[in-house]
Amino acid sequence: MFMALTVATSSFSIPVPGGHLYFCDVIICTAAMLLDPFFAFIAGGVGSFLGDMIFYPAPMFVSLVSHGLQALIASLCVRKFTKMKPVYAGSIGVIVGGIVSVIGYTLDRAFVYATVESAIVKLPFAFLQAGVGAVIAIILCYQFKLAEAFDKVFNKDKRASKTEEVKTN
C-alpha cells in the first residue's frame, strides 16, 4: 500500500521557485515510522524508483538509493529510540532520513545528473522538500494518531501473543 502511494504521489508536485515540491516524501516518512526497515526501504526506494520510471525516468536509480536509504535509516532510528516518546523517535528518524536523501540527490546533481553549481542552487529546495515531508508525516502519525491506528490493526497478533504469554505465566 505504501509503495503504491509513493508511486502515486511521485506524480504530484507544487511548483516552487527553482523546482517542484513533491509529496512522495510524506509517504516515505510515514512508511518509515510505521514499517520495519526492510518494508520501509521497499515502500520508499522501490516506490520512488517505479514512480520515476513512469513519470520521469532520468533519476530513477538515484531515487531508489536515496529514498530507499532515507526510509531504511529513518525506520532504524525510530526503532533504536523506542524508549523515547514516539514523536521524538519519529522526529529523529525522519530528520536523519531526510538528511540522507538530500545528500544523495545533491551528490547526484553535482557529479552525475548536472553540475556542482546546480546542486548548490537546488540544496535549499531539497531541504524544503525533506522538511515538509517530515513535518506532515509526523503530524499524520502522531497528531492524527495514524501510528496508533496502524499498530492496532497490524500488530494485534503480537499483542495477542503477549497477552497469552502473560496469562500462562
Task: Explain what you see.
There is one protein chain. By secondary structure, this protein is mainly alpha-helical. It has 8 helices and 2 strands. The protein has helices spanning 2-9, 24-34, 37-55, 60-80, 86-113, 116-143, 146-154, 156-168; strands at residues 13-16, 19-22. A two-stranded antiparallel sheet has the order 1-2. The radius of gyration is 17 Å and the shape is globular. Mean pLDDT is 90; it is low at 159-163.
Summarize the structure.
With 169 residues, the chain is mainly α. The chain has helices at 2-9, 24-34, 37-55, 60-80, 86-113, 116-143, 146-154, 156-168; strands at 13-16, 19-22.
Oligomer: single chain
Low-confidence stretches: 159-163
Report the principal-axis shape: globular
How much helicity do the residues have? over 70%
Radius of gyration: 17 Å
Mean pLDDT: 90
Number of strands: 2
Instruction: Give a quick account of the main beta sheet: strands, pairing sense, barrel closure.
Output: 2 strands, antiparallel
Number of helices: 8
Measured by DSSP, the beta-strand proportion falls in under 5%
Strands ordered across the widest β-sheet:
1-2
Distance between the termini: 38 Å
Helix/strand order: HEEHHHHHHH
Structural class call reads mainly alpha
